[in-house]
TrEMBL record:
This is DNA polymerase V. Gene3D superfamilies: 3.30.70.270, 3.40.1170.60, 5' to 3' exonuclease, C-terminal subdomain (1.10.150.20). Residues 7-191 form the UmuC domain. One of its GO terms (molecular function) is DNA-directed DNA polymerase activity. It comes from Candidatus Magnetoglobus multicellularis str. Araruama.
Amino acid sequence: MKKLDVFALVDCNNFYVSCERVFNPHLQGKPVIVLSNNDGCAVARSNEAKALGVGMGIAAFKIADLIKEHDIFVYSSNYSLYGDMSNRVMSTLASFTPNIEFYSIDEAFLDLSDINEKHRKAFCQNIRDTVLKWTGIPVSIGIASSKTLAKIANRIAKKSVKASGFLDLTHSPYLDHALERTSVEDIWGVGRKYSRYLINHGILNALQLRDAPTYLVRKKMGICGTKMQTELRGHSCFPLEINPPAKKNISVSRSFKQGVTAIDDLKEALATFVSIGARKLRKEQSVAKLMLVFITTGRFATRYDFQSQIISLPVATNNTPELIKHACCGVERILKRGFI
């Protein structure tokens, strides 16, 4: 009998705001927003700011009166800080399991298939407590038998007072209720275009999408749509990608046949990987502003370790020598911190 896949999505709560609160504890319980580059739009909001009606992506000038009336704390985005805090969170998560997918700056999927069902809640609570203690960042965790359902579980875990930051939908009698209360546009992978199509066909929530005729979904959404339906039915179609996220990124990584610890050997390999990435950048007529360098021990090492360094480039570039220079600086910083 095939073992049930169990995915946990760990998501940092209001990540940019939480980062600011780590270094400014007086912001706890206060309305806070973080603005995009050039202080344009709100890209992160505390729960208190959300309660005041501050919408995601709203231009700052449109809520100037609201900011003044309610003494909302406003911060310019600090991506170097957020990158460093993300590294701390992800390194902490990697200490619990090597089976981890770094999905975005504030999200990661974990494979909990080997954790006994009776112990999952305690295991996840330990993760939440440890991340908060070591980094100061609060996280919510959603568990399910597919990534799509784990996303839904996490979303409810964040918003539901009763769930209080944790929800397990693997064998939940409330699964249908959870799907019914999830609007179709809030399902992972359903964009604006697809949501319009589905709504026009009377599919308004995740439960209706799960039970909809496959031909209707496939007609517009193709194989990705049918995989989404399968995931909503509790069967995994999207395995864990044990890599930094390739979403809107170019990711180049390799495993070595034998352990490599010499700095010169690491730099040589890194230069090769960066050259491949730079070539891809130029092919797509793109440039890079941020770079993530990461190192892990072998998955079967006695003690698993993961370390990464996010580098904010002074000028966006696709120049190979320039990228290699910054990447090598990144790996040196990792080794200075003490990588086993």
